[in-house]
Fold this sequence. Notes:
4% of the residues lie in helices and 31% in strands. Mean pLDDT is 87; it is low at 1-45.
Amino acid sequence: xxxxxxxxxxxxxxxxxxxxxxxxxxxxxxxxxxxxxxxxxxxxxxxxxxxxxxxxxxxxxxxxxxxxxxxxxxxxxxxxxxxxxxxxxxxxxxxxxxxxxxxxxxxxxxxxxxxxxxxxxxxxxxxxxxxxxxxxxxxxxxxxxxxxxxxxxxxxxxxxxxxxxxxxxxxxxxxxxxxxxxxxxxxxxxxxxxxxxxxxxxxxxxxxxxxxxxxxxxxxxxxxxxxxxxxxxxxxxxxxxxxxxxxxxxxxxxxxxxxxxxxxxxxxxxxxxxxxxxxxxxxxxxxxxxxxxxxxxxxxxxxxxxxxxxxxxxxxxxxxxxxxxxxxxxxxxxxxxxxxxxxxxxxxxxxxxxxxxxxxxxxxxxxxxxxxxxxxxxxxxxxxxxxxxxxxxxxxxxxxxxxxxxxxxxxxxxxxxxxxxxxxxxxxxxxxxxxxxxxxxxxxxxxxxxxxxxxxxxxxxxxxxxxxxxxxxxxxxxxxxxxxxxxxxxxxxxxxxxxxxxxxxxxxxxxxxxxxxxxxxxxxxxxxxxxxxxxxxxxxxxxxxxxxx
Length: 549
């Protein structure tokens, strides 16, 4: 979480060269570990599926060649135009220049420079997509404190996808570096955590942004977070309207935005600490999945392959913690917490490999793709090159049932990002270390490689109101088995902001689907979503954008 031990921005190429030279020097001495998928083969026992299928694109998907974008995508946001905004900062400390930003067009594979025109470093800021579709950055780094400082700024910027311009919003009341945010059912945004203005402590006060009036309000002291809150906490809006705070540390906190107070739910925290682990709200909007991460704050520690979940639809929500493996002080398989449920006893199926700093991407078929990340022993060490896929219906991982998916070429570990594109592909980028950090790669999941007929949407509304019944025209109506809305995603540092998959009720007619929009902002906070229809073969249509308000 602390940036001090990582390479400085603008120096990644020099550090990469040094590491390469050292690695070559060590190789003759036999000190370099062997690699499998770019992973130290001595650090985990890979589970080999018994029914592994032949490695064809239809089973494992495919990656396009890396494409240089001239920037390290440490932050990423999908825009309602279908383009992707990415930014970081590569300016000298104290230079007073803005952050580097680019907009990538997936259709044309072209990149446009849209650097921040203001003297603010929005590196390690929070990210939120407002109800009008503008991307808002919250906080960032105060470079005037010099190299290595983690001081925050109070700056809030907005990016307009229509004309690709940056504007300044009203600044927050508190400076923040590494903050998190979440959109409430009414479209307002709350922000929490972050390092303060002089890098001496976390900011405990939460504040709320009203996007219609461009004003910030500091919430009452009852809304303050505690000293145990971490950087970039995962904040998830539930259908009750409450906000669950999960990861990166053990957490069992629930925030009620009506009373501005915290409560304890579930009754006990997860058994696993997940520093730089992944957390996501699964389809159905009641179950939260947490995977991987480290148990130790020491960045040389190794990640775990364990997973956990909690179902808030239950009368008494409780964490279901699977057992897993990890390496503590070089001892593989150590430190399984007492009380975890082994797979042999019906516990959650662990991933086939340790992962930290992995991005969890909700796919159009309702599964969760775990992309990038590394096994630990350093933030950029032992990268995992192949994605995995979690099925929340069967609670199984693709690597454990049908085999590994296709491997990408560039390591995507710490500071990596990824989002779902409207054509069903996934873009992966970032990680300011390695051979090609200023590139992106695009993955076509197996559902796009089957060769089967892909459904099409002929017409659909461009905006919806809550509870509205609407019509989707498609010649493939009779084959459709699922209709959903997928919120445009933004991410950084293995934290996903407002990512959600909202299933819709629907009926099939002659050449059309009649569906019903979500009942309220509790299910789908106002903003832009992709309209997803899935056929009986698990193949999605290209997804148009729809504004829900």
